[in-house]
Amino acid sequence: MAMDAAEIEKLIKESLPDAKVTIQDLRGDGDHYAAHVVSSAFKGKSRVQQHQMVYKALKGNMGGALHALALQTSAE
Which of 21, 31, 33, 65 sits CB 3.0–4.6 Å from 61 for a disulfide? Predict the structure, then answer.
């Protein structure tokens, strides 16, 4: 079962409450998304650490309900 963009955004914002999240469905199939996440929690973190924080927020759905996520993160 695929995830919808609203559920992805909700999970990210639960973990990163100040996050500004923009999500795009790349294929219209509910399986391939691009997300841009901006959060002050990323300040001082490497890009890998920022992405790990987002993946953790997705609570194990990456690779299952969420097949592909092109991710861009920044602190500002």
Answer: 65
This prediction has a pTM of: 0.89
- CA–CA gap between residue 29 and residue 42 (Å, rounded): 30
> Would you mind telling me the total number of residues written for the chain in this entry?
76
Of the candidates 49, 63, 58, the one whose C-alpha atom is nearest the C-alpha of residue 21 is: 58
Nearest-CA neighbor of 22 among 72, 76, 75? Answer: 72
Rounded to whole angstroms, the Cα distance separating 64 from 66 reads 5
What is the model's pLDDT at position 1? 60
| Rounded-to-5 percentages of helix, strand, coil across the chain | 35, 30, 40
